[in-house]
Predict the structure.
Amino acid sequence: MSSAAPETTSRAVPVGRDLTLDLARVTCVVLVVFVHILFTGVGRASDGSLLIERTVEAQPWFSAATWVANIMPLFFVVGGYAARAGWRSTVARGESADAFVRVRLARLARPAVPVFAFFTIALGAVRMLGIDPALVDVVAVGVGSPLWFLAAYLVVQACAPAMMRLHERHGARVLLVLLAGALLVDGVRYIVIGGLLGIQPVPPVGYGAGQELFGVPNIVFVWLFAQQVGFFLYDGWFVRRRWWQLALLIAVGYLALWGLVSLDGYSWSMLANQWPPTTPMAVLAVIQAAGLTLLHRPLTALMRTRAAQGAVFVIGSRLMTIYLWHLPVIMILIGIQLVLPLPMPAPGSAVWWWTRPLFLALVLAVVWAASLWLVRFEAAPAPGAPRFPGARACVVAVVVFVVPIIGITTYGLDFPLAALSLACTLAALWFTGSKRVE
């Protein structure tokens, strides 16, 4: 898998574009949607009473499955590959790092505008209607949980030009420094804060911050590590390895992962290690980059077919819309089922499991229908002349966009944070000179 031009396919493909990377992005997002569907265990018992549970977490195989199914590190690896390709195009056009960052900000912030507006209006309305705050909190925290990705991804993309210069000068030593930083943050969080000071984690769904607050610096160390692995992927380091070397790398990676989670503090569930990110996520990034390379030949053959290209194109052109809107849509569909009321299988029953793929198709169909209007936010136009040129202005815009989102992920989505995030997103777009959001 390298930057060399792929073979001609039945579709018009830009020169140098590796379609397996587009397939990886699409697969990651669809898998995220399906996992969230499995988490929303809402149904009725045999006596008609309402059941609400996180069904999939109760399964004995859940933690083991997350070692394969948690593909968020791969998203950052692929993002690193794309950033390296995009940076070369930026340099070829004679543009600066500021222009590179402003484009990445627009691509993330524009799709976030309508979803933050929706949350602000919806949470403001339920406040006025006097709906049970406890129920609102449970739903709001759930639908706001994927927003961490916006903050984390923009942070590492904004750092990409500087990290690529370090990559070119120091190569794998940058990975070692980032890995050491991640381990240091984990050590402070679990040993110093958790052990010596006795500050415990907060529940996975709820407000407040315990040990988690001290893990926030790993947004930088862990996800920059994954992005840096993507630079190696772009440079062809992985593709130059033989198949057995890649398989050995995966095996050694999983052994290292097992050794890490055997230590006190880390969770055996990779989902619990995702926010704030911990060192196991960095190890998974290497494993998944090797796995993607190992599967490159059959995935390339798949992407030569019109069906695969069509599906990847349709879903890929709406990727941020699907990611940002799938949980609100899931909650709305469940709400409709409860209000009408429609038959709902008990969570965990055989019927419930068999209907999950059907519910996935329904969620994707509804999001696709919504995307007919929302897709206009997906295509980020070329930014206009920045109102405040220079690197400092870009840093301020990134911070303005990122900080309230980290607040949502740490303390839970509520009306004030939704409204603040909307205002900050619009301010960041205005600050960097992006065109008006229609």
